Amino acid sequence: MISFPSLVRSLFTFTLMFLGGCGVSSFLITPVSSSSTLEETTVQAGSGFLPPKVVIIEVEGMLANSRSGGLLQPQENKLSLFTQQMDKAAADPAVKAVVLRINSPGGTVTCSDTMYQMVKKFRQTTRKPIIADTQEVTASGAYYVACGCDKIIAHPTSVVGSIGVIFQTFEVSGAMAKLGITSNAVASGPYKEMGSPFKKLEPDERALMQQMVDEYYARFLTVVTTNRHIDSANLKEATDGRVFSGEKAAEIGLVDQVGLLDDAIAVAKDMGNAPSAQVVMYKRPYGYSGSIYSSDSIQPPRSDVMKLEIPAADDLMPTGFYYLWQP
Predict the structure, then answer these.
(1) How far apart are CA 195 and CA 168, in angstroms?
(2) 61: number of Cβ within 10 Å
């Protein structure tokens, strides 16, 4: 006879193996706070009494106006978090400059453009400089956001560029036909189903989608040419969708200089006239709230609950228009 404690342990082990897949998984269990407010953390000390501040704000992962987070993990809307962080930096008179630490392949057209507009508005209303610092990847929509900054500092080996637009969709009608499955939609017009995975994209539909892609690309191109000084001889190469190393990006004008995060911070201190500044970050233990892009549908957990982080594959992207590098 199997004892009840042994049965519980067996079920728990089986559940972890199922959730983690067939391979060996590792788990990190950490306590989380019940607070959803932004907390300021000093990551590099300044000098003097009450030194001014340079804020590092992260721009990481897929940029989308939607919640992200895995099973039993905190869910965060990156646009909402970015909004709140920028507002906090703008409202604090001690903040003299901001560094956007970017590590992202881009994201949706609208989220990328919204974040870019926030950066431009921040600069215009506060007169505080913003420096973009590229980490592993600053591509497509993430580069779009960086174009709103005063300067872009790229790590020599960063992946930079991928200026362009992609309409992401897929088609399963052939596979469905082999299985004897059909999809029947009642639509209000001939183009209502355009881009549906359940039907072939017809030539006239493709032409309409191409028009929208071209429109969004023209907007991206305007952002680049307005904010960056790229020689006309390099413009076509720089904006045809390819990616570059940080070194090459500096050569053709996509970024201002190569350097490390410390160099970006030094530039921010110099432009903010704050050589003695401390460097801070804004962190939230769990959840998201406090901006117009937030949602209160997810409540933070109790502080006595343990969070189990399980590695998971990226979700399939929904159909849509993206400023995204997806090799």
Answers:
(1) 9
(2) 16
Q: What does the domain layout of the chain look like in residue ranges?
A: 26-165+200-324
* CATH for 26-165+200-324 (3.90.226.10, 3.30.565.10, 3.30.43.10, 3.30.930.10): 3.90.226.10
Alpha helices of the chain — where are they, by DSSP H?
A: 4-20, 78-91, 109-126, 141-146, 173-178, 203-227, 232-238, 246-252, 261-271
Active site residue 88: no
41 Cβ contact list (under 8 Å, min separation 6): 280, 281, 282, 283
User: Could you report the per-residue pLDDT of 299-324, keeping only the tens digit for each?
Assistant: 443 333 333 333 333 445 666 788 88
* Known active-site residue 140: yes
Work out the average pLDDT over 148-154: 98
Entry pTM: 0.78
* Residue 66 scores a pLDDT above 80: no
Q: Three-class SS of residue 324?
A: strand
Catalytic residue among 121, 192, 200, 283: 192
Instruction: Give the span between the Cα atoms of 206 and 152, in whole angstroms.
Output: 36
* Catalytically annotated residue among 36, 104, 140, 162: 140
Asked whether residue 147 carries a pLDDT value surpassing 80, the answer given is: yes
